[in-house]
């Protein structure tokens, strides 16, 4: 009996331990991806070299270099000193040129879990987009031909009709005046003149209104910079580059160092194909190379080894000198979105002028836009706090809201002085 | 019957009309190539006599000695003192001793600091500071610091300011986008968020994930 009891006791303890360890292992195996994401993902990718080497097969490469199995633990725990002493580490540093951050807190099991996960990693199969459905055929040509045929038929019928009438008149002995060729027919002439007057007048007035306005102006810029890629796909805030819009009269053009903040690391374009409006495609990587030309950056050496040149961007939005416009007044105080005046800039591969920037357009917006008086939250807009009467009236429910016009936004001197 | 076909003849007066109309329309519509700016008529006071921002200038020719940068050794009125530690490993080490010169931020200033962080930093470091910004998750930029790691929670604020000022590894200098005060505000915001994060960690028992059991 005693014998049995001891056996059962041992077995239970054994099973308990097996459970304990197995659950532990299971946990780490699952955590490999999580640990990778927290600690490693910013520099490593499982399957390809990134800022650091690919983690897949890292242990095999290490073994091939004749290093003991625990080398990788030492390396992760103590990169800073090993990068100067250990030959394999020095070799890695020479290749990738970025010292790895040490993670002394990572346990061996966690490192193993990450490497196990990376070894098993398979690149998720690329999603193949089904070829886009053919857009409906353009029917306008068909309609045009039909209209033309019908018009010709109508004309022939009219002609036939008048000829028949003439014949019947002749038979009945009614004398008709000699037919007048249509270009001397006064009715035709008058009609023609009126049509010409309307068409000519329409275009003349359109052209005259358009003098000094540049709606739709889309110059060719020295670098094909796509706002769609930067502000749309990559969700970079407008103010990241055009920070001046909140502080000054001008929404500044970013200096080249702002471009290089990201493009030190982003050397090639790998997103969706970029196309111009006329359908020709743009090589994004070549455009980034142009940026390196201008900035003097050498991507392989990771340093500026040439003098930089100015990028002469072509200004699109221009107001005449007799109008004062201040970005910060609109962006910071008025809290207007950039898109209000510049259109859906995050969807424009190539920027075109969205609004006509005419005075009517300005005034219209000033008449309709409600001023953000509401500073109840405590961090609201203090700019309008001096308009005490309006604030009181709003409190007394006299008004619902105040427009820009009501606080003088359509006075001549606000913009012309 | 002899008139029957006459309607299809275009005699010369009509032809000249057609040509005239065609010309008129083409002249007026051909003004607008979108690659060229529109036309102006009598642009009185439309172009600035003074040099405008970014406009080409002849200042040197005119003998005007204009500096694009502040004179070295001067600071703008109301600005913080210049940050003088050099951009090298020695400067980085010394930066550990530098303290934030700003008094603690109130809630409004903290909101402003958060706004600045979200505009300038969150694109890589992520709005939650966990290195999950759009450029990080799409794998475009590598080596982005996960500011919620112990390593960065322990990093002295002076060194953070140093890094924001000069850049480090893949990160560029943000001195041109954020002035000294704004940079310190952002550092203050990061530190306050990190303090919250580590407080959360120490309150929740970290039984399963040993990586967060520290502190």
Mean pLDDT of chain A: 82
Q: What is the helix content of chain B?
A: 25-40%
Shape of chain A: elongated
Give the DSSP E fraction of chain A (strand runs of 2 or more residues): under 5%
| Secondary-structure content class of chain B | mainly alpha
Order of helices and strands of chain A: HHHHHHHHHHHHEEHEEHHHHH
Q: How many angstroms does the end-to-end distance of chain A come to? A: 109 Å
Q: Could you say which structural class the secondary elements and strand pairing of chain A correspond to?
A: mainly alpha
Low-pLDDT runs of chain A: 20-27, 130-135
* Total beta-strand segments of chain B: 0
Gyration radius from CA atoms of chain B, angstroms: 32 Å
* Sheet with most strands: strand arrangement of chain A: 1-2
What's the CATH C level of the largest domain in chain B?
Mainly Alpha
- Uncertain runs of chain B: 1-11, 205-215
Distance between the termini of chain B: 109 Å
The radius of gyration of chain A is 38 Å
What do we call the CATH topology of the largest domain in chain B? Cytochrome Bc1 Complex, Chain D, domain 2
Q: Report mean pLDDT of chain B, rounded to a whole number.
A: 80
Task: Please outline what is shown here.
The complex is a heterodimer of chains A (417) and B (215). Chain A is mostly helical. Among the domains of chain A are: 89 residues, Orthogonal Bundle (Cytochrome Bc1 Complex, Chain D, domain 2), CATH 1.10.760; 104 residues, no CATH class; 60 residues, no CATH class.
């Amino acid at each position: 009996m005693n014998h049995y009891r001891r056996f059962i006791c041992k077995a239970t303890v054994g099973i308990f331990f097996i459970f304990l360890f197995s659950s532990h292992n299971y946990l780490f195996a699952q955590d490999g991806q999580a640990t990778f994401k927290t600690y490693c993902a910013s520099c490593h990718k499982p399957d390809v070299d990134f800022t650091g080497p690919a983690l897949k097969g890292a242990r095999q490469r290490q073994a091939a270099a004749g290093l003991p199995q625990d080398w990788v633990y030492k390396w992760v725990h103590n990169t800073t000193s090993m990068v100067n002493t250990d030959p394999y580490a020095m070799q890695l540093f020479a290749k990738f040129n970025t010292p790895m951050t040490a993670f002394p807190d990572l346990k061996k099991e966690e490192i193993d879990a990450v490497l196990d996960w990376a070894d098993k990693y398979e690149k998720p199969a690329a999603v193949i987009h089904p070829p886009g459905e053919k857009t409906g055929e353009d029917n306008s040509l068909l309609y045009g031909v039909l209209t033309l045929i019908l018009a010709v038929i109508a004309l022939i019928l009219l002609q036939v009709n008048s000829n028949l009438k003439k014949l019947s008149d002749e038979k009945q002995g009614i004398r008709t005046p000699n037919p007048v060729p249509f270009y001397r027919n006064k009715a035709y002439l008058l009609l023609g003149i009126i049509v010409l007057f309307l068409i000519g007048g329409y275009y003349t007035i359109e052209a005259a209104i358009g003098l000094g306005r540049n709606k739709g102006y889309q110059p060719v810029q020295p670098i094909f910079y796509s706002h769609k890629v930067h502000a749309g796909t990559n969700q970079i805030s407008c103010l990241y580059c055009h920070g001046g819009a909140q502080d000054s009269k001008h929404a500044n053009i970013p200096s080249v160092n702002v471009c290089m903040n990201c493009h030190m690391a982003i050397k090639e374009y790998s997103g969706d194909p970029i196309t111009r409006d006329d359908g020709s495609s743009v090589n994004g990587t070549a455009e980034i190379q142009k940026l390196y030309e201008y900035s003097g950056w050498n991507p392989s050496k990771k340093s500026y080894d040439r003098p930089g040149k100015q990028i002469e961007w072509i200004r699109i939005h221009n107001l005449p000198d007799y109008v004062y416009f201040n970005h910060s007044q609109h962006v910071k105080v008025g809290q207007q979105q950039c898109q209000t005046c510049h259109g859906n800039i995050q969807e424009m591969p190539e920027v075109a002028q969205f609004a006509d920037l005419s005075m009517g357009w300005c005034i219209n917006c000033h008449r309709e836009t409600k001023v953000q008086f509401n500073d109840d939250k405590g961090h609201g807009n203090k700019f309008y706090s001096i308009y005490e009467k309006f604030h009181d009236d709003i409190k007394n429910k006299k008004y619902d809201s105040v427009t820009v016009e009501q606080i003088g936004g359509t006075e001549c001197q606000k913009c012309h002085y | 019957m002899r008139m029957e076909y006459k309607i299809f003849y275009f005699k010369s007066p009509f032809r000249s009309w057609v040509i005239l109309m065609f010309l008129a329309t083409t002249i007026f519509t051909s003004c607008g190539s979108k690659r060229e700016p529109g036309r102006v008529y009598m642009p009185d006071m439309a172009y600035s006599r003074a040099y405008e921002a970014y406009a080409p200038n002849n200042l040197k020719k005119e003998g005007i000695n204009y500096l694009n940068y502040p004179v070295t050794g001067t600071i703008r009125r109301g600005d913080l003192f210049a940050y003088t530690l050099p951009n090298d490993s020695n400067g980085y080490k010394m930066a550990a001793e530098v303290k934030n010169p700003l008094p603690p931020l109130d809630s409004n200033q903290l909101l402003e600091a958060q706004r600045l962080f979200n505009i300038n930093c969150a694109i890589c470091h992520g709005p939650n500071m966990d290195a999950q910004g759009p450029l990080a998750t799409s794998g475009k930029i590598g080596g982005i610091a996960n500011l919620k790691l112990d390593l960065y929670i322990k990093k002295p604020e002076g060194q953070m300011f140093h890094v924001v000022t000069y850049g480090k590894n893949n990160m560029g200098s943000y001195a041109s986008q954020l002035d000294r005060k704004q940079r310190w505000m952002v550092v203050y915001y990061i530190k306050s968020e990190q303090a919250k994060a580590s407080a959360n960690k120490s309150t929740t028992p970290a039984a399963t994930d040993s990586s967060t059991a520290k502190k």
